[in-house]
Structure formats: C-alpha cells, structure tokens
Amino acid sequence: xxxxxxxxxxxxxxxxxxxxxxxxxxxxxxxxxxxxxxxxxxxxxxxxxxxxxxxxxxxxxxxxxxxxxxxxxxxxxxxxxxxxxxxxxxxxxxxxxxxxxxxxxxxxxxxxxxxxxxxxxxxxxxxxxxxxxxxxxxxxxxxxxxxxxxxxxxxxxxxxxxxxxxxxxxxxxxxxxxxxxxxxxxxxxxxxxxxxxxxxxxxxxxxxxxxxxxxxxxxxxxxxxxxxxxxxxxxxxxxxxxxxxxxxxxxxxxxxxxxxxxxxxxxxxxxxxxxxxxxxxxxxxxxxxxxxxxxxxxxxxxxxxxxxxxxxxxxxxxxxxxxxxxxxxxxxxxxxxxxxxxxxxxxxxxxxxxxxxxxxxxxxxxxxxxxxxxxxxxx
Length: 379
Fold this sequence. Notes:
By secondary structure, the protein is α/β, with parallel strands linked by helices. It is built from twelve helices and 13 strands. It has helices at residues 11-22, 64-81, 97-107, 123-131, 151-161, 171-176, 184-196, 216-222, 252-263, 317-322, 345-354, 359-362, and strands spanning 2-8, 28-36, 40-47, 50-58, 86-90, 113-121, 164-167, 201-203, 239-246, 266-273, 281-288, 291-299, 332-339. It has an eight-stranded mixed beta sheet with strand order 4-3-2-5-1-6-7-8, with helices on both faces. A five-stranded antiparallel beta sheet has the order 9-13-10-11-12, with helices on both faces. Helix 2 crosses helix 3, helix 4 (123-131) packs across helix 5 and helix 9 (252-263) runs antiparallel to helix 11 (345-354). It is globular, with a radius of gyration of 22 Å.
C-alpha cells in the first residue's frame, strides 16, 4: 500500500493539492477528512474526481488525534483491502503530517509506503501566518478550544516534516476573485518558503511533482529541537537567513538582554545554545513570529555517558559536523530568517559574539553565573 499525506490550514489549498496528487498515480483514491463542531467527523472519498462516499461519524472524544486514529487510519486500511494501490489522505486542517504518519505506521495491519508528505498552502498568506498571535482555535482553523498552537507554529513544524509544498490560491483568494498567483506578494511568499524549508520541493500548478521522495529519518532529524537547516547559498530576495556560530559559552545575563533584539522582526529564530550557567546542557531556542521559547534537550553528547570519541557522532549529524577537539559538540548555533531589510548580518553576528564569555570570564568557575535560563522563558 502506498500513501500520500497532505496537511494544510486551508481547505481550498488542500483539495486542490489532493486532486492533483490523485491523478499522479494509477488506481488512486483521495480521502478528505474534516473535524467539525460537536466531535463530528466528515469523510469524503473521491476517485477520478468523482465522489464515491460521503459519511459522517460522531466521536466520543473528538480531537485531531482521535480523528486520525479512529477514522483516517481505518479508512486507509479499508481502501487498501479494496485493492486501491495509492491513497491520498487530505488531513483535517491543523493535523500535523508527522502525527498522522506515526499513527499510520503503528495502526495499519499491513506494511505501508509513505510516498510523500505534502503541505498545501497559499504563499500570499504565509507572512501573516507567521506573525498571527491567535491560536488555531481562535482563528477558526480547528474546532478544539484547547489547541493553543499558532498558525506559524503549525506551519514551521510542517515545513520541517514535509518533502513537498504545493502552492495554490487559498479560500480567501477564491472568494475575493483575486487568486494572486504570480503577484509580488505571491512571489515573496515563495521566497520565504525557500528560506524556511530549503529542502522542500515547492510545486505550483505548472510545477513538477516528484513522487516517492519522503524520508522518515530526514524528517525526524530536521524537526529535532535545536537543529539548524539553512539554504546552501544566499540569493537576492525579499527574505534572507543569517547563520552564526559562537565557540565560547554565552553569558546568561548578556544573552537574556540580547534575545529580544535578536527576535524582533525575525520570522523564525532557531538553534542551540551553550550557556555558561548550564554548561553541560544543550538548550534549544526557537522563535516563531511573536513567540520565543527555550527548552533543555538534555546533555551535550560531549557530556553524556556515551559521548563521542574521535569525532564519531553516530546518528547525530550536527554533532559530527560541529565536533571540536576540545569542546566536542558544545557551542552556539543560531539562524535568523526575516525580511532582508530587517536583518543586518554584521549586527547580528556582533550581538551574538558580545554575549560570549570573555577570556577573563572563561577562567572563572561556571558556577558563578547562577541559575540557567528557564526553559519556559518567552517573549
């Protein structure tokens, strides 16, 4: 059985993407799931553009994960048993593709190949999504009041997981009669996509789709807290990404003061920190639009029981690439993505470097720096 999973926040984009994907394989069916108010799941199944089934189910405890586990997975199982070679699963808006893939891996009775993990969106909306302070529930994307993710947080998680982004005019564009495809805001959104997900194949209506390129291990590695992936080369455009590394521990007070300056105007701030007040702990930092937070991800490999000797990092590619003969994988790596006119690479690098311990401070016992930054610190 072959599966393609499609996530989105916009039902119009999702349906356009699933329709195209349904034509990309022989003997395909397309399934669209929606979680409505009152724990009501709406399921529609199409083949060759024709509606084969439309059913509703009431869940006892309606939530996004229950919808996947109790309806999406059994539907995929049933369609495979009917002889369909390829099933395109259009997930309810707000359902993470990674969660759906995990449920499919664990819930199906037969082996399944995930051909592609696809995000469908309107690039015109991407900038606004990144800065939206409202939760997915407040914005009407999900019917779950307890869903406190913002649209930017959802999209960053999806962009890390998927192998393909399909861009189509969204529901707002269709209702307004202005599709925006090819416009300046559209092209700016596509440029931002290239900065946020340099690994992904961005496919427009006339673009080339590459089937069968999903890789579980790569998707997991990209979404590990503290991991940094940036475009291979900087190209002129409305958005840019600035990458900087610092080899000495950061002074906790100076970094705390610098963090708001780094985050302001930054669409996406991410990386890992070596903080003098918690020298053995690998601290991940992430800022998505208006939200910024820190979290401890455990010890550096150089401070763990297994460690890395001779620069052999095993499965941790970042530790292997950044391994230092003296410091091991310890160090600060930060990447900031935002509008080109808002990010001055020299200012950012000088600000981060100013947070490092001086040579004199390096001679002191790290215990003098007090308590580490709280993992829940947020702006």
